[in-house]
Specification:
Layout (H helix, E strand, L loop, with lengths): L1 H20 L16 H21 L12 E8 L5 E4 L2 H6 L3 H4 L13 H13 L4 E4 L2 E3 L5 E10 L6 E8 L15 H16 L8 H8 L3 H12 L3 H19 L4 H7 L5 H12 L19
Antiparallel strand pairs: 1-2, 1-6, 3-5, 4-5, 5-6
Helix pairs in contact: 1-2, 6-8, 7-8, 9-11
């Protein structure tokens, strides 16, 4: 029982680290009871998160989370000599190379020195095993030789000599705190931070009006709208809509939940409205997005 409790405690500590990494500084690990030093680690993480949050707010800035905009899926197709034969459209953006430069490049050239031994150790297995499939955590190198950690699955394609490398990479998109040459005020930042977190935690619910939000958080509705745009360069409603669609996009890619149910989970009562909003945002309908359980069309390779 004690070991089980400790395992759960360790899991919560990892969750805390993940939440901090995505910018969520409001997550806390609750106090335990003498769990072999784990409480000390929890106290340290909680205190660190408190300190970071206070420093950011006292500086007059809000702290954006990266929950739904940080995962980018990429795909490489390698030939039997481990050169890049094809890749998805997101690859050049993430690694910063021109598509012409990446095409036919040896895959090893975009892997960091830390990950090269792991990659070299499995190359022979890939050649000899027609059903080869594994998961590794390589670190890619972009064109400026900066490290890009990733999570990859590597598979030998059936009836083909091609190798599929599919990865999910964390890319933090910039959210600018636009000061407009004005001095940010701590009180404004605190209110906007609370509104921002409220929206992210209630994406499946209808968005309250600006007047209702201002009453909920003790702010003037004009100042609330102006302050939100000041920090995020967008309106409250547009931010709410884009975050719902980002959430839906992730759910479509990484789950097998029916599209109509995802629309409902993302706060849309009508699938037609969801589909229109999704297409307007991403320039393709939700039904065109490749899903987790979709089979690879071998004829395309």
């Amino acid at each position: 029982m004690q070991n089980e409790s400790n395992q759960q405690r360790i899991k919560m500590l990892y969750q805390m680290l993940f939440e901090m990494a995505t910018g969520n500084l409001s997550f806390r690990v609750p106090q335990g009871v003498n769990q072999e030093g784990l409480d000390e680690i929890a106290d340290t993480l909680n205190a660190l998160s408190d300190k970071m949050q206070n420093i950011i707010l006292q500086s007059g800035y809000v702290n954006p989370h990266y929950t739904y905009q940080n995962l980018t899926q990429t795909t490489f197709i390698l030939n039997n000599e481990f050169h890049i034969a094809s890749f998805s459209a997101a690859v050049p953006d993430i690694l910063g190379f021109n598509p012409e430069t990446l095409f036919k490049m040896e895959f090893t050239n975009i892997i960091s020195s830390q990950s090269t031994p792991t990659w070299n150790s499995i190359k022979e297995e890939i050649r000899n095993d027609e059903n080869f499939h594994t998961t590794i955590h390589p670190i890619f190198l972009n064109n400026q030789e900066r490290l890009v950690p990733s999570f990859c699955t590597i598979s030998k394609l059936l009836y083909s000599d091609k190798i599929l490398v599919s990865s999910v990479t964390t890319i933090l998109q910039d959210i600018t705190n636009n000061t407009n040459n004005a001095t940010p005020r701590k009180s404004d930042a605190v209110i906007i931070q609370k509104v921002y977190e409220y929206i992210l935690n209630h994406l499946e619910e209808p968005l309250p009006t600006a007047k209702e939000l201002s009453q909920m958080f003790g702010a003037n509705d004009f100042k609330l709208k102006d302050g939100f745009r000041h920090f995020f360069n967008t309106s409250i409603y547009k931010f709410y809509t884009e975050e719902r669609l980002k959430k839906a996009h992730i759910l479509i890619q990484q789950t097998t939940i029916p599209l109509k149910e995802i629309a409902f989970m993302s706060g849309f009562n009508e699938y037609t409205n969801f589909s229109k909003a999704f297409k307007k945002q991403y320039h393709y309908p939700p039904s065109d997005l490749k899903r987790e359980n979709d089979e690879i069309d071998q004829t395309t390779f």
